[in-house]
Design goal:
The structure is a single chain. This protein has 15 helices and 7 strands. The chain has 379 residues and is mainly alpha-helical. The protein folds into 3 domains: 150 residues, Tetratricopeptide repeat domain (Serine Threonine Protein Phosphatase 5, Tetratricopeptide repeat), CATH 1.25.40; 82 residues, no CATH class; 81 residues, TolA/TonB C-terminal domain (2-Layer Sandwich), CATH 3.30.2420. A hairpin with a 5-residue loop joins strand 2 and strand 3. Helix 4 packs antiparallel against helix 5. The radius of gyration is 32 Å and the shape is elongated.
Length: 379
Amino acid sequence: MFRKPQKRRCVLGFLIWVCLIPFSNSQTSFAQSGQNVDTTRGTALFESGDTSAAISTLMTAVKAHSDDAEAWHFLGRSYNRLGKNAEAIEAFLHAVKLRPSFAPSHVGLALALQRANKLSESSREAEVGLKADPKCDECHYVLALVALRKGDQHETWRHAVLALEMNPASLAARDLRNQALVNAYSQALSVKLKIDESKTQGVLLALNLIGSQMGIILDPTMATQDFRTKQSDRFDRVSTLYKEALEQSPADPDAVEWRERLNAIRVWRSIILTDEEGLKKHSIIPRSELSTQPVPANQPPYNFPDDFRQAGVKGRVVLGAIVREDGRTESIFVVEPLHALLTQEALTAARQQLFKPATKDGKPVKTIVMLQYSFGLTK
């Protein structure tokens, strides 16, 4: 009498246990599929460009499952897209903690840190990404971006080239590479030179030819020889960079212009560092000795990109150029730069500039002119 009810209870318990197994499994499966659905939906919304909806959906995903690395990653990317650096950094910190070997999350974190002006941290994070994936072109892109922010043109160029080697289609890396080259070229000849007044007659003659009115500062504390040494070093560094660029990418669409710049550096090095000897070597006639001055024969257009206009960027690019006997420009040099992209616009226009050539005793001759390009300024 005692065992029979016990047997019924055991049978009943067994049946309940058997019935609960599929129910419990279905609950677990539902929870997992719910997590995947939110992450998948959020990712799809991000890819479609609906960033606000993506953030809302991905926030739901990470609240329900804080260990969802994919959700944290795309949440960080969404915040990056909106320029919300603090939120992006927080999201990516979760992502890299959960998936430390996933390079794209390190890239996203590095970009957010760079925008937050945390350059050293950004570089470190990009390096971590490279260790996780040595073929991470975006890691090199971020390192190039940070180097550009720091003013290191050679490092900018180096990392941009490495990014392009891994991903030749990267327009962003190509843009950084070209910015570095333009910036280096712009820095080859300093406008605000410091030289000894008592020992600079020859140097000033050459400098005045390219526009002493453009802001050359005379400082008696620095000797001419010191100036020559520093300027020579600057020319050498920029020449080396352009030689490396040509060796690395001799067939690049911009290689023709790189060769022109390299030649211009050689010409101006000769003019600046050897005074009258350099002028004679290149058959350049000082403006004061001309019978007639060069006269512009056209007005090549140049672009002022909307992004710069809307940002309120204003200024001018001043270039020095040699006008040949046929009225064409050569050896164009940056005297006063702006942002690299605006300086490039001016350089492109200057290459197309034509003149009625200068003359001396009735014959066309070479001379030096100043070219000025205004951006956002009243002409």
